[in-house]
Amino acid sequence: MGENEMNTPAEIISDVKKRMDGGLNSLKHSLNSLRTGRASISLLDPIKAEVYGSLMPLNQLGTVSAPEPRLIVVQVWDKESAKAVEKAIANAGLGLNPIAEGNVIRVPIPDLSEERRKEFVKKANEYCEQAKIALRNVRRDGIEVIKKLEKDKQISEDDMKHYSDEIQKITDDHVKKADEATQAKAKEIMSV
């Protein structure tokens, strides 16, 4: 934990909670980038286009909107970068076929095949598993610090057990939320 060593159990628990919240937010962001049958502008979040020699996220190159349930539109601000944006969307491996009309790029959202939906659900579960590993690592770190406090006689053995249990409860809560978010996403992906 470096310089500003956390020493009170309350600070340790607060840090554990903050890090686990960050892990959950990261999972939710990953889940949002998975495609369902509906147009969602977050679908294009992971895509970067090569413009002026550097990779830039699409939302820094234009306005991204979903005017219809099955259509995403990217209004590119600089006509020069429209080709690069179109190419980036086409090559993103999301099965999208953008249509450029000047500096407006229309991205129709095709129906997802059953097979493709199952792949996305599998990916959602992978994201969830990664998040759970991260949550367990945070739990382990937190409990190690609490045990060290007890070893250094800064807290009693009862306190150590109490705070370790509290960290376990926080972990269980976050794991449950990760599962719920993933199940909701899977349901959304599979609903036709």
UniProtKB/TrEMBL annotation:
PANTHER family hit by this protein: MITOCHONDRIAL RIBOSOME RECYCLING FACTOR PSEUDO 1, RIBOSOME RECYCLING FACTOR
GO annotation, biological process: cytoplasmic translational termination
Keyword DNA damage tagged: no
Lineage of the organism: Bacteria, Pseudomonadati, Pseudomonadota, Alphaproteobacteria, Rickettsiales
InterPro entries attached to this UniProt entry: Ribosome_recyc_fac, Ribosome_recyc_fac_dom, RRF_sf
Gene for this chain: frr_2
Protein name as catalogued: Ribosome-recycling factor
Domain of life: Bacteria
Keyword Cell division tagged: no
Job description of the protein: Responsible for the release of ribosomes from messenger RNA at the termination of protein biosynthesis. May increase the efficiency of translation by recycling ribosomes from one round of translation to another.
